[in-house]
Hints:
The protein is 56% helix and 15% strand. It folds into two domains: 1-26 and 118-230, Rossmann fold (3-Layer(aba) Sandwich), CATH 3.40.50.300; 27-115, Rossmann fold. The strands form two sheets. Strands 2-6-1-7-8 form a five-stranded parallel β-sheet, sandwiched between helices. Strands 3-4-5 form a three-stranded antiparallel β-sheet, with helices on one face. The longest helix is centred in the C-terminal third of the chain and has 30 residues, at 200-229. It has 230 residues and is an alpha/beta fold. It is globular.
Amino acid sequence: MIIAVDGPAGAGKSTVTRQLAERLGFQFLDTGAMYRAVTYVALRKNVSLDDQNALAEIAQNIVLEFVGDEVFISGENVTLAIRTPDVTRKIKSIADAVEVRRHLVALQQKIAATGDFISEGRDQGTVAFPDAICKIYLTASTRFRAVRRALQLEQQGISTDLEEVVTEINARDYNDENRKVGRLLKADDAVEINTDNKTVNDVVDELEQIIKEKIADTKIASASSNRQKA
Length: 230
Ligand code: DC
Protein backbone atom coordinates (compact mmCIF):
# COMPACT_ATOMS: atom_id res chain seq x y z
CA MET A 1 0.00 0.00 0.00
CA ILE A 2 1.22 3.48 -0.87
CA ILE A 3 0.09 6.75 0.67
CA ALA A 4 1.27 9.79 -1.29
CA VAL A 5 1.83 13.08 0.51
CA ASP A 6 2.66 16.17 -1.53
CA GLY A 7 2.84 19.86 -0.83
CA PRO A 8 5.08 22.93 -0.81
CA ALA A 9 8.27 23.37 1.22
CA GLY A 10 7.68 23.95 4.94
CA ALA A 11 4.07 22.71 5.09
CA GLY A 12 5.17 20.15 7.69
CA LYS A 13 5.17 17.10 5.38
CA SER A 14 8.31 15.53 6.75
CA THR A 15 7.50 15.75 10.46
CA VAL A 16 3.89 14.74 9.99
CA THR A 17 4.53 11.84 7.62
CA ARG A 18 7.29 10.39 9.81
CA GLN A 19 4.90 10.27 12.77
CA LEU A 20 2.05 8.96 10.65
CA ALA A 21 4.23 6.18 9.28
CA GLU A 22 5.06 5.13 12.82
CA ARG A 23 1.41 5.11 13.90
CA LEU A 24 0.25 3.16 10.86
CA GLY A 25 3.19 0.75 10.75
CA PHE A 26 4.23 2.00 7.31
CA GLN A 27 7.75 2.83 6.13
CA PHE A 28 8.59 6.39 5.26
CA LEU A 29 10.12 7.66 2.02
CA ASP A 30 11.56 11.20 1.90
CA THR A 31 11.87 11.86 -1.84
CA GLY A 32 13.20 15.40 -1.28
CA ALA A 33 16.25 13.75 0.32
CA MET A 34 16.89 11.98 -3.01
CA TYR A 35 17.02 15.25 -4.97
CA ARG A 36 19.16 16.71 -2.19
CA ALA A 37 21.54 13.73 -2.33
CA VAL A 38 22.04 14.08 -6.10
CA THR A 39 22.67 17.82 -5.63
CA TYR A 40 25.19 17.11 -2.87
CA VAL A 41 27.13 14.63 -5.04
CA ALA A 42 27.08 17.00 -8.05
CA LEU A 43 28.47 19.84 -5.91
CA ARG A 44 31.12 17.64 -4.37
CA LYS A 45 32.25 16.36 -7.76
CA ASN A 46 32.23 19.91 -9.16
CA VAL A 47 29.84 18.82 -11.90
CA SER A 48 28.35 21.73 -13.84
CA LEU A 49 24.68 22.05 -12.85
CA ASP A 50 23.87 22.58 -16.54
CA ASP A 51 25.40 19.26 -17.54
CA GLN A 52 22.24 17.18 -17.94
CA ASN A 53 24.09 13.98 -18.86
CA ALA A 54 26.40 14.14 -15.85
CA LEU A 55 23.48 14.87 -13.50
CA ALA A 56 21.48 11.98 -14.96
CA GLU A 57 24.47 9.67 -14.49
CA ILE A 58 24.73 10.62 -10.81
CA ALA A 59 21.00 9.96 -10.32
CA GLN A 60 21.25 6.63 -12.10
CA ASN A 61 24.23 5.38 -10.10
CA ILE A 62 23.71 6.89 -6.67
CA VAL A 63 23.70 4.30 -3.87
CA LEU A 64 21.20 5.66 -1.37
CA GLU A 65 20.22 4.12 1.90
CA PHE A 66 17.64 5.32 4.40
CA VAL A 67 18.13 4.09 7.97
CA GLY A 68 15.54 5.54 10.34
CA ASP A 69 15.87 9.32 10.02
CA GLU A 70 19.36 9.11 8.52
CA VAL A 71 20.42 9.18 4.88
CA PHE A 72 23.55 7.48 3.51
CA ILE A 73 25.26 7.77 0.13
CA SER A 74 27.53 4.76 -0.51
CA GLY A 75 27.76 4.24 3.25
CA GLU A 76 28.54 7.91 4.11
CA ASN A 77 26.11 9.58 6.52
CA VAL A 78 24.90 12.73 4.68
CA THR A 79 21.81 13.46 6.80
CA LEU A 80 22.96 16.99 7.67
CA ALA A 81 25.13 17.63 4.62
CA ILE A 82 22.16 17.37 2.22
CA ARG A 83 20.18 20.00 4.17
CA THR A 84 22.60 22.91 4.08
CA PRO A 85 21.37 26.22 2.58
CA ASP A 86 23.90 25.75 -0.25
CA VAL A 87 22.31 22.46 -1.34
CA THR A 88 18.81 23.98 -0.99
CA ARG A 89 19.80 26.98 -3.17
CA LYS A 90 21.25 24.81 -5.94
CA ILE A 91 18.66 22.02 -6.00
CA LYS A 92 16.53 23.66 -8.71
CA SER A 93 18.79 22.50 -11.58
CA ILE A 94 18.64 18.93 -10.31
CA ALA A 95 14.88 18.92 -9.68
CA ASP A 96 14.29 20.42 -13.14
CA ALA A 97 16.44 17.83 -14.93
CA VAL A 98 14.02 15.50 -16.71
CA GLU A 99 16.37 12.49 -16.81
CA VAL A 100 17.26 12.90 -13.13
CA ARG A 101 13.54 12.82 -12.33
CA ARG A 102 13.05 9.73 -14.46
CA HIS A 103 15.77 7.84 -12.57
CA LEU A 104 14.63 9.02 -9.14
CA VAL A 105 10.94 8.25 -9.78
CA ALA A 106 11.96 4.74 -10.92
CA LEU A 107 14.00 4.35 -7.71
CA GLN A 108 11.04 5.56 -5.60
CA GLN A 109 8.76 2.99 -7.28
CA LYS A 110 11.33 0.24 -6.75
CA ILE A 111 11.72 1.06 -3.05
CA ALA A 112 7.96 1.37 -2.51
CA ALA A 113 7.35 -2.03 -4.11
CA THR A 114 9.11 -3.63 -1.12
CA GLY A 115 6.40 -2.81 1.46
CA ASP A 116 3.79 -0.38 2.76
CA PHE A 117 5.06 3.18 2.34
CA ILE A 118 4.11 6.77 3.00
CA SER A 119 5.99 8.69 0.35
CA GLU A 120 6.41 12.44 0.58
CA GLY A 121 7.47 14.98 -2.02
CA ARG A 122 6.02 17.13 -4.79
CA ASP A 123 4.90 14.64 -7.46
CA GLN A 124 4.10 11.51 -5.49
CA GLY A 125 0.34 11.48 -6.09
CA THR A 126 0.59 12.74 -9.67
CA VAL A 127 3.66 11.05 -11.21
CA ALA A 128 5.33 8.45 -8.96
CA PHE A 129 2.20 6.80 -7.49
CA PRO A 130 -0.92 7.82 -9.42
CA ASP A 131 -2.67 4.68 -8.03
CA ALA A 132 -1.81 5.40 -4.37
CA ILE A 133 -4.55 4.19 -2.02
CA CYS A 134 -4.71 7.63 -0.41
CA LYS A 135 -3.35 11.01 -1.52
CA ILE A 136 -2.83 13.97 0.75
CA TYR A 137 -1.92 17.52 -0.26
CA LEU A 138 -0.47 19.29 2.75
CA THR A 139 -0.23 23.05 2.57
CA ALA A 140 0.12 26.17 4.76
CA SER A 141 0.42 29.93 4.29
CA THR A 142 3.82 31.36 3.34
CA ARG A 143 4.20 33.04 6.76
CA PHE A 144 3.64 29.84 8.72
CA ARG A 145 5.98 27.92 6.45
CA ALA A 146 8.68 30.58 6.75
CA VAL A 147 8.49 30.59 10.56
CA ARG A 148 8.80 26.77 10.61
CA ARG A 149 11.75 26.87 8.21
CA ALA A 150 13.49 29.61 10.25
CA LEU A 151 13.09 27.55 13.42
CA GLN A 152 14.53 24.47 11.68
CA LEU A 153 17.55 26.46 10.51
CA GLU A 154 18.07 27.91 13.98
CA GLN A 155 18.04 24.39 15.41
CA GLN A 156 20.86 23.60 12.97
CA GLY A 157 22.76 26.64 14.32
CA ILE A 158 22.14 28.71 11.17
CA SER A 159 20.94 32.24 11.98
CA THR A 160 18.22 33.60 9.69
CA ASP A 161 16.23 36.67 8.79
CA LEU A 162 12.50 35.90 8.46
CA GLU A 163 12.03 38.15 5.41
CA GLU A 164 14.90 36.34 3.67
CA VAL A 165 13.26 33.01 4.44
CA VAL A 166 9.94 34.30 3.01
CA THR A 167 11.74 35.32 -0.20
CA GLU A 168 13.45 31.90 -0.37
CA ILE A 169 10.13 30.09 0.14
CA ASN A 170 8.42 32.15 -2.58
CA ALA A 171 11.25 31.34 -4.98
CA ARG A 172 11.05 27.61 -4.17
CA ASP A 173 7.26 27.64 -4.63
CA TYR A 174 7.69 29.29 -8.02
CA ASN A 175 10.30 26.70 -9.06
CA ASP A 176 8.30 23.77 -7.70
CA GLU A 177 5.05 24.89 -9.37
CA ASN A 178 6.58 25.74 -12.73
CA ARG A 179 8.97 22.92 -13.62
CA LYS A 180 8.13 21.20 -16.90
CA VAL A 181 8.02 17.67 -15.48
CA GLY A 182 6.89 16.58 -12.00
CA ARG A 183 5.74 20.01 -10.90
CA LEU A 184 4.06 20.54 -7.55
CA LEU A 185 0.39 19.92 -8.18
CA LYS A 186 -2.52 18.70 -6.09
CA ALA A 187 -3.79 15.44 -7.61
CA ASP A 188 -7.51 15.60 -8.46
CA ASP A 189 -8.22 12.86 -5.94
CA ALA A 190 -6.01 14.24 -3.13
CA VAL A 191 -7.43 15.50 0.17
CA GLU A 192 -6.11 19.01 0.87
CA ILE A 193 -5.20 19.89 4.46
CA ASN A 194 -4.01 23.32 5.57
CA THR A 195 -1.70 23.09 8.59
CA ASP A 196 -1.80 26.79 9.65
CA ASN A 197 -2.42 27.14 13.40
CA LYS A 198 -2.47 23.36 13.89
CA THR A 199 -0.08 21.39 16.04
CA VAL A 200 1.81 18.44 14.54
CA ASN A 201 -0.31 16.17 16.71
CA ASP A 202 -3.58 17.71 15.40
CA VAL A 203 -2.49 17.18 11.80
CA VAL A 204 -1.29 13.61 12.44
CA ASP A 205 -4.63 12.78 14.13
CA GLU A 206 -6.59 14.28 11.23
CA LEU A 207 -4.58 12.44 8.59
CA GLU A 208 -4.64 9.14 10.47
CA GLN A 209 -8.44 9.32 10.47
CA ILE A 210 -8.63 10.16 6.75
CA ILE A 211 -6.19 7.41 5.78
CA LYS A 212 -7.85 4.73 7.92
CA GLU A 213 -11.26 5.58 6.42
CA LYS A 214 -9.82 5.49 2.91
CA ILE A 215 -8.17 2.09 3.50
CA ALA A 216 -11.40 0.70 4.99
CA ASP A 217 -13.47 2.03 2.02
CA THR A 218 -11.02 0.54 -0.47
CA LYS A 219 -11.12 -2.85 1.29
CA ILE A 220 -14.95 -2.84 1.26
CA ALA A 221 -15.02 -1.87 -2.44
CA SER A 222 -12.53 -4.57 -3.37
CA ALA A 223 -14.34 -7.25 -1.32
CA SER A 224 -17.61 -6.34 -3.04
CA SER A 225 -16.03 -6.44 -6.50
CA ASN A 226 -14.49 -9.87 -5.69
CA ARG A 227 -17.95 -11.14 -4.62
CA GLN A 228 -19.45 -9.93 -7.90
CA LYS A 229 -16.74 -11.71 -9.89
CA ALA A 230 -17.21 -15.00 -7.96
O1 DC B 1 11.11 18.33 0.47
P1 DC B 1 12.47 19.03 0.33
O2 DC B 1 12.45 20.49 0.67
O3 DC B 1 13.56 18.31 1.04
O4 DC B 1 12.80 18.94 -1.23
C1 DC B 1 13.95 19.52 -1.76
C2 DC B 1 13.71 19.90 -3.22
O5 DC B 1 13.58 18.73 -4.00
C3 DC B 1 12.46 20.72 -3.48
O6 DC B 1 12.77 22.09 -3.62
C4 DC B 1 11.90 20.22 -4.75
C5 DC B 1 12.59 18.91 -5.01
N1 DC B 1 11.68 17.77 -4.98
C6 DC B 1 11.09 17.43 -6.17
O7 DC B 1 11.28 18.11 -7.16
N2 DC B 1 10.28 16.33 -6.20
C7 DC B 1 10.06 15.59 -5.10
N3 DC B 1 9.28 14.49 -5.20
C8 DC B 1 10.65 15.95 -3.88
C9 DC B 1 11.45 17.07 -3.85
